[in-house]
Design goal:
This protein is mainly α. The chain has 5 helices and no strands.
Length: 127
């Protein structure tokens, strides 16, 4: 009888084997093994590669988990699902920030002060 650790290691290998680039694969292995939190794994991958490459690697592992998982792989499969969900949320947040940055109004250098703001000549007292 194979140990739980052996089954888990086999599942991790099956789900990540051949994922490119190798640095991304190494991070995915740590994450799917439960050694690295999904958010930390995603941050590390994004610091190494473009979001499209990271997404392709995560999509590859997710597809494999959906199509070749075995009943004994459920813990590993759950970790892949969590990784995918967090990546989707992080990308949505990045897109929101990017959209906000693109649409943010630029400050006008020579814009006169708007009425009702700033010093109106009133004396100030401390008390």
């Amino acid at each position: 009888m194979t140990s739980r650790t052996g089954l888990e290691a086999e599942a991790i290998t099956r789900l990540t084997e051949g994922v490119q680039p190798p640095g991304i694969r190494a991070i995915l292995v740590q994450c799917v093994a439960g050694e690295l939190a999904p958010s930390a794994a995603i941050s590390r991958m994004l610091s190494m590669e473009s979001p499209s490459i990271v997404r392709a690697a995560i999509d590859d592992v997710t597809h494999r988990a959906a199509t070749i998982s075995r009943a004994s792989d459920m813990l590993v499969h759950d970790r892949v699902d969590e990784l995918t969900q967090i990546f989707v949320e992080m990308v949505a947040d990045l897109a929101d920030v990017s959209d906000a940055t693109k649409s943010a109004p630029r400050p006008a250098v020579d814009r006169p002060p708007r009425p009702g703001f700033g010093d109106r000549g009133e004396s100030r007292t401390s008390g």
